[in-house]
Specification:
181 residues, alpha+beta, 6 helices, elongated
């Protein structure tokens, strides 16, 4: 077993109680590799697909955690990886910064009354259809009376967007949403 600091071992014994011996025994086993999915971001179908492809085994004490065996680093081509990163970026799950890398984004916070709008593109994709958007108006304008409600100065300017959206082959060709933002 690796040498662990005595202070650390005493603290772990106090924290783990009767599970302390199992904790010590785990150091006799080969290290396990694991990963966690952020369930607020990853789609359930994506998680299920990766669990099957990578032969992931659940971590008993972590619902979103999985153990994996050694993965061949060349399982996919560079083009496939780029396509996957493009999809993650398109879904707003990562930010890609040239020369720096790819970073997981913070979850987007949506107001309860508008959260249904964000789901239209995903719902359309899930049923094999596409979402179309027509921008009816886009411009910058003085904030006006709305400024008081938004705690903005009277001379502030805001962007106004008016659009309507369709899901092809759905709702008899009528728009599914009309929004003014």
């Amino acid at each position: 077993m690796r040498e662990l600091p005595e202070a650390y071992l005493r603290r772990m014994q106090a924290l783990l109680g009767e599970e302390y011996e199992a904790f010590l025994a785990s150091y006799q086993e080969p290290p396990k590799k694991g990963l966690r999915f952020n369930r607020k971001k990853a789609r359930p179908e994506t998680i299920a697909q990766l669990k099957e492809q990578w032969h992931l085994k659940p971590v008993p004490w972590c619902e979103s955690g999985f153990y994996y065996e050694e993965l061949n680093e060349c399982l996919i081509s560079r083009a496939t990886l780029r396509h996957a990163l493009d999809r993650l970026e398109g879904d707003g799950l990562i930010n890609r910064i040239r020369g720096s890398g790819s970073y997981v984004t913070q979850p987007k916070l949506l107001h309860g009354s508008t959260s249904f709008i964000a789901g239209y593109r995903r719902e359309a994709e899930q049923i094999g259809r596409s979402l179309r958007t027509e921008v009816l108006e886009l411009g910058v304008q003085p904030v006006g009376k709305l400024g008081e409600r938004l705690s903005l100065p009277a001379n502030a300017r805001v962007t106004r967007l008016v659009r309507r959206r369709w899901i092809d082959g759905f709702n008899d060709g009528r728009p599914v949403v009309y929004t003014t933002v």
